[in-house]
């Protein structure tokens, strides 16, 4: 998976998060997030943050890489989506997100993302 490398490059080079990840496709919007793989979940969250994250809000984006969990904070201002430093949060064996059973892409909001820690 090349997403962790892209996240690091985006942060270090101050590249536009939107430009780096806009090419990620969306998965089945009707499938509950709990049933998606880590890669599909990452794609869904990136897509959601680019298109649906409300202005002046932030969210934590997590990714599993080499068994460990890393996270960054995405903040949306007027027209920019900025990302913070990538930090390792758990050792191997941790979970990325714990979604409520009924949560799908269209029902996703910042409070659900925050509570799925």
Helix-strand blueprint:
Layout: H1 3-12, H2 17-21, H3 38-51, E1 58-65, E2 68-76, E3 81-83, E4 87-90, H4 110-115
Antiparallel strand pairs: 1-2, 2-3, 2-4
Describe what is shown at a glance:
The protein has 117 residues and is α+β, with helices and mostly antiparallel strands. Helix content is 30%, strand content 21%.
Structure description:
It is a single chain. This protein is of the alpha+beta class. It has one domain. It is 30% helix and 21% strand. The protein contains four helices and four strands. Strands 1, 2, 3 and 4 form a four-stranded antiparallel beta sheet that branches. It is globular, with a radius of gyration of 13 Å. The two termini are 22 Å apart.
Jot down its keywords.
117 residues; alpha+beta; four-stranded antiparallel sheet; 4 helices
Q: What is the string of SSEs from the N terminus onward?
A: HHHEEEEH
Q: Sheet bearing the most strands, described?
A: 4 strands, antiparallel
* Count of DSSP strands: 4
Note poorly predicted spans.
none
Oligomeric status? single chain
Structural class: alpha+beta
Radius of gyration: 13 Å
Beta fraction: 15-25%
Helical amount among residues, as a percent range? 25-40%
Number of helices: 4
Shape verdict: globular
How far apart the termini lie comes to 22 Å
Q: Could you tell me the mean pLDDT? A: 85
The total number of structural domains is 1
């Amino acid at each position: 998976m090349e997403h962790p490398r892209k996240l690091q490059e985006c942060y270090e080079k101050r590249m536009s998060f939107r430009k780096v990840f806009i090419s990620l496709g969306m998965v089945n919007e009707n499938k509950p997030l709990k049933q998606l793989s880590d890669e599909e979940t990452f794609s869904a969250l990136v897509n959601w943050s680019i298109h649906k994250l409300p202005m002046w809000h932030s969210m934590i984006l997590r990714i599993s890489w080499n068994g460990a969990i890393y996270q960054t904070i995405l903040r949306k201002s007027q027209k920019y989506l900025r990302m913070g430093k990538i930090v390792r949060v758990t050792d191997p064996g941790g979970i990325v997100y714990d979604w409520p059973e009924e949560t799908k892409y269209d029902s996703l909001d910042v409070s659900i993302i925050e509570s799925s820690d």
